[in-house]
Specification:
The complex is a heterodimer.
Chain A (H helix, E strand, L loop, with lengths): L1 E7 L2 E7 L5 H8 L18 E4 L2 E4 L12 E3 L12 H9 L8 H14 L5 H8 L10 H15 L2
Helix pairs in contact in A: 2-5
Chain B lengths: L1 E13 L9 E8 L5 E5 L8 H13 L6 E5 L16 H27 L8 E4 L2 E4 L6 E3 H12 L3 E8 L18 E13 L5 E11 L6 H20 L5 E2 L2 E2 L17 E7 L19 H15 L10 H17 L1
Parallel strand pairs in B: 3-4, 10-13
Antiparallel strand pairs in B: 1-9, 2-3, 2-8, 5-6, 6-7, 9-10, 11-12
Helix pairs in contact in B: 1-2, 4-5
Classes of the chains: A alpha+beta, B alpha+beta.
The structure holds FE2/S2 (inorganic) cluster (2 copies).
Chain lengths: ~160, ~325
């Protein structure tokens, strides 16, 4: 067992883990944050996306210990039903959710983009979202939702 | 060199299990004391939106808002069987079962209302905006919640119903080809514009225009979502996706080697909704799910042909196949 210290959704966490544990397992199983989904388990689909120190990562291919001392945001830290993040609200308003399995990762990818670049071009949005696979929506409404959220964030 | 072309693909598609296979959906409905209602069906919403459609249907009949309807679906402990979420059948089949069940419960409500308001026939009782009362006479009406509450607590009346819908299908006679294997049929037509790079063989789909006859759009946002999802899967089918098998084993069971479209691979999509009501469907609706992806494939392959004059006859149309076909064409051309 090793000691792991990290910040998750603004809260400091200290826990003992096996050295080989993946970040996604620590988030889902040890911390109960099951909003993060596992799709492929090999870094290809983006379902397990979380934000680490401002950058999106695939939590299925990151060891938990690599997050030592880091700041992690999961979907639970983005917003909730009562106070949704602009990206979440835009996803609902555009109808960008079908089965929903890709959605937490999509929302985090969009949030990470808008945090850095509040006024992205359609090309920049496409590129930023292209690491997250969706089998249901054809991306059309997802891309619209990100544009809508950008407009809301920048107040245009 | 980059060359552009357009192509067309058309589809007709029999919805439901077909060929005489029993195709039955069931639904339970209960109108509660508080004037809301519950719909129970075995239909599983996998994201296409069937639960929303059922809530809309029940709300429409009962004069309520969709958010007043609790849809409980796909729980074998409590819901009646509604078959699989497959064959483009849930909006049509289970939608019909829900509509029948809701109308049954509503009729009991109307009968109670007719007695309550001294109205000669239940048809004279209207449900609208959460109210129940005599059609055309607002002075004789009350909130549905009050009437339902009074009916149960003072008279022991329950507004509960169960109904089933069975799609029409007969087996095809293999001797003479006669029979009615499917009903209804869905129709669609899509046009694709592509750009083919003759040096690399890669194809970029620039735009898909998709026209689909779905009888009646119960939920427009979901319809657009189904079309866009279908188009993206069609793009994958046409250009990227191939299950490679070796001795019964899949050789590429990973997204790194079985490519599906990303946000960068999908074209601009323009959807056109054709509403030609289907008499046997709920409010004229029929399915859209699978038909949305079918014409995409033919439209893209035809557009490649229009752009560079090669006919790809096996899917997916990979750059290797296109380059080989272009080389073959050149040889054929120079060899005369
Ligand atoms: S589950 Fe991590 S990338 Fe697919
Ligand atoms: S909504 Fe189903 S995978 Fe994206």
């Amino acid at each position: 067992m090793v000691e792991l210290e990290l910040t998750v959704n603004g809260k400091a966490c200290m826990l003992k883990i096996e050295p080989g544990e993946r970040l996604i397992d620590v988030l889902r199983q040890r911390l109960g944050l099951t909003g993060t989904k596992e799709g492929c388990g090999e870094g290809e689909c983006g379902a397990c996306t979380v934000i680490m120190d401002g950058r999106t990562i695939n939590s299925c291919v990151v060891l938990a210990i690599q997050a030592h001392g880091r700041d992690i945001t999961t979907i639970e830290g983005v917003g909730n039903r009562i106070r949704p993040h602009p990206v979440q609200r835009a996803f609902v308003e555009e109808g960008a959710v079908q089965c929903g399995y890709c959605t937490p990762g999509m929302v985090l990818a969009a949030k990470a983009l808008l945090d850095k670049n509040p006024d992205p071009s359609p090309q920049e949005i496409g590129a930023a979202m292209s690491g997250n696979l969706c089998r249901c929506t054809g991306y059309d409404k997802i891309l619209r939702a990100v544009q809508r959220a950008a407009r809301e964030v920048t107040g245009t | 060199m980059k060359k552009r072309g357009t192509g067309l693909g058309c589809t007709w598609y029999g919805t439901g299990y077909g060929n005489g296979f029993p195709d039955v959906s069931s639904a339970f409905v209960e109108i509660h004391d508080d004037g809301t209602a519950a719909v129970l069906t075995g239909a599983v919403d996998v994201g296409q939106g069937s639960s929303t459609v059922f809530a809309q249907i029940a709300a429409e009949e009962l004069g309520l808002r969709p958010e007043d309807i609790l849809v409980c679906s796909g729980d074998t402990d409590v819901t009646p069987d509604s078959g699989t979420t497959a064959a483009t059948r849930q909006t049509y089949n289970t939608g019909n079962a829900v509509l029948k069940a809701v109308r049954q419960a509503k009729l009991r409500l109307q009968e109670f209302g007719a007695r309550k308001f001294s109205c000669p026939s239940p048809e004279g009782i209207e449900l609208k905006d959460g109210m129940i009362g005599v059609r055309g006479d607002p002075s004789r009406s009350m909130p549905l919640s009050e009437l339902a509450w009074e009916a149960r607590l003072l008279h022991g009346e329950r507004f509960i119903s169960a109904s089933s819908f069975t799609a029409q299908t007969t087996a095809v006679n293999l001797e003479n080809g006669q029979g009615a294997p499917y009903w209804p049929y869905a129709f669609g037509c899509q046009a694709a514009e592509v750009e083919v790079d003759t040096d690399t063989g890669t194809v970029r789909v620039l735009k898909i225009a998709a026209a689909h006859d779905l009888g009646r759009a119960v939920n427009l946002t979901q319809v657009e979502g189904q079309i866009a999802g279908g188009v993206a899967q069609g793009v994958g089918y046409a250009l990227l996706e191939e299950v490679e098998l070796a001795e019964g084993r899949i050789k590429n069971p990973a997204f790194a080697r079985y490519l599906i479209p990303t946000a960068l691979d999908v074209p601009e999509i323009e959807s056109m909704i054709v509403e030609e009501p289907e008499d046997t469907g709920p409010y004229g609706a029929k399915g859209l799910g699978e038909p949305a992806m079918l014409p995409t494939i033919a439209a893209i392959i035809n557009a490649i042909d229009a752009a560079v004059g090669v006919r790809i006859t096996s899917l997916p149309a990979t750059p290797e196949k296109i380059l080989a076909a272009l080389a073959e064409k050149q040889r054929g051309g120079s060899g005369g």
